[in-house]
Fold each of these.
Amino acid sequence: MLFRTFGGSFALTAVGLVIALLYGGPTGLTIAAILAVLEVSLSFDNAVVNATVLERMSPFWQKLFLTLGIAIAVIGMRMAFPLVIVGVTADLSPVEAVRLALEKGDPSTPGTYGYLMHEAHPAIAAFGGVFLLMLFLDFVFEERDIKWLSWLERPLARIGKLDQLSVVVAMVAVVIAAYAFAPEDKMATVLISGILGMVLYLLVNGLGQLFESDEDSDEVQNLPGIYGAAGRIEEVVRRSGNGPLAVKVGKAAFFSFLYLELLDASFSFDGVVGAFAITSDPIIMAIGLGIGALFVRSLTVFLVRQGTLSEYVYLEHGAQWAIGALAAMLLCSIRFEIPEVVTGLFGIGLIAAAFISSIMRNRHDRGSGADEEEAVELAAV
């Protein structure tokens, strides 16, 4: 299981590191390895959250997540996205943006590739921060049977009954980020970027829910999707053939896949921006971050196939609180410098705490079960 899930990632990692060595020598190899570790540490919570969505999808869509999805993650977010940001910021054509990127240059020097990416950070942080904040708020404002930080999650779920509260809180966060954190010349940019992040989340989440629920069909109510149940695509398609129900299933799965890609993109914002503190070479950056993205994808599938989330029930809670912390730090980074190591360690710490809490819960449940069995045996005697 371990080799089958991570084998491809290890093979592509070896290829990527060889290319980094040939391209940039020992220095390029070292930087690529550092960026890979940085990406994994920053995106570990991403793997847990992605797994909660992916486990409700069929093997076909899981494979698509590892193939087409990884191409989107590496080529789209780690290579094309920085070029697009630089091109839009500096009003450059794609060819000019690529030329500027290959020239590298010091990020502190005006006009260089790294400098332009740094200038675009407020917009990126606002967009990604609000998208992740909406995801976190929708989780903590929902009533759940299992609670990790019950002293905090219980009152949050209670007030979450107010309609559209997550939108109100996110809007307040956008206004604070724009008028308290952003430089005067970036206020409008931060405000618009934050609103766009919120709109995109509402759109994708709403479309996913639309196609995964149908009040006139008991079968479709439990379809896979952003919040659906597991293992239903193949069953429903098999029973319905190529009729309307099968089309609806396909749409639900598609929007779940789209949701996963946008979620991954939001998580990668801090890694892409933070990478410029280490190197401004786009080739080395793409190799290092791409290797990290490969392992995050493989880890996501491993968690699904091993049933880790069902065994350690607080993992999702820890990942969601890590998302909330990352969203807050992204918004605060508009004004304050926050080292990437702080972001990564904070998220890993929350997930580790949730993992330990899950182990303690499992031991307690097993102990309670043993006591009940012993009581039944004594009563029978």
Note: Residues 214-248 have pLDDT under 50 and may be disordered.
Amino acid sequence: MQRKILAFQKDDQGHWMAELECGHKQHVRHRPPWINRPWVVSEEGRQRHIGRRINCKPCDLEQSSEHSGFDTHH
């Protein structure tokens, strides 16, 4: 599910994470050749991505569990 990026912060290991409008956080790494996000390494690049949408894996999991009939919330 696509969610807007509201801000960025670093995790405990210094990796950048996007804070999403849904409240989840998503790592946004630049690790060529597998993950190519050079914009992550500069403040200007991160600021240009505020408001853009990225896929939120936790929201995808929540949505698929709602449709499957299983309750993932305890």
Note: Residues 2-68 form one domain.
Amino acid sequence: MRAVVIGAGIVGLTTGLALRRAGFEVVICERAPEIRAAGASLGLWANALAVFDDLGVGEQVRNIGAPTEMHFHDPAGSLLDTPGYGPEDHQYLLVHRAKLNDLLADAVGRDNIRLSSGFTAYEEHADHVTVHLSDAVSLDADVLVGADGAHSAVRAQLVPGAAAQKHAGHYSWRAVIPDAAGTVTEDRLILGTNGSRGGYVRTHDGSVYWLVNQFNSPSPMGSSKQEALERIVHLEDGGRDGTMARLIAATPEERVLHHQVMLVPPLPHWASRRVVLAGDAAHAMSPHITAGATLGIEDAALLGHLLGAGRDVPAALAAYETVQIPHYAHVARLSAAVEHAPAPQEFARHYVAFSHWMITRQQPTMRPSH
């Protein structure tokens, strides 16, 4: 059986790896001319690491990551306690997106990836789907997986009128820079005033990842670096030790990534008989819960499990949709509770409640019915 996966990002590559291990011939199509990653670093929680363990690459992923803890401070530098939760509810692995993409591409097999080959349309038939690509190639497959991000072209055909929407007033700035002198000796995540969050964490290779986010922000007018610097006043009372300002000031302008946060609205369906969505293509959410990659990796694992269980593609995709749509409705409620927390203490409490639920909930093991 053959699967075509659109998108060679983290979710697309993980889906390809899961389906290959389930016995599928896999073709991953990527419109870019190379394997690359949009963004700097990302956090992988215990549930994502469990998926990579099952797929045989867990140790390799840990080797390119730095174990980190998600503890928040207020602008005065005080730790925001979260009584009732243990250390495991705060622990995740920080990895560089590009390095994880390269690792997964190698694991899938680069011969199974078509570069400069974007999706244009599909035709669905009773027993297969024909996928048309931008390089004038058409592929027949048993299943098509759209893992092509928030602006998914597969979603545009599967669920017309469901384009990604701006999360009004929500912007992010971030970068990874070297810290050869080792001047950053701790990780610090700060819940500030005026809807701002930010901080810095050390990576496994001696670099530092810094980030600044703001809800209800005025439209940025200056350079990305200038806009990030202007928000320091919300994150550090009296400037504190000036670490955030120093890190941003030391970052070349071209390395500062700035994004308007985009969201995918709740979808009425994620699948047809032979076409299905995964990752941000199905459920792009605000990055303030720091779990987008982890949740998409779970999508990939579930697809691999269901499609490999009985080889009945329509039943497997129906089962996947039945599990995932209500699951993500609950994720959205938990995410909203974090976003709308009235003060830093409540933000921290709702955040750890989300991470605890995410890493301890029972993973679905249902098989498609026949």
Note: The two ends are 18 Å apart (CA to CA).
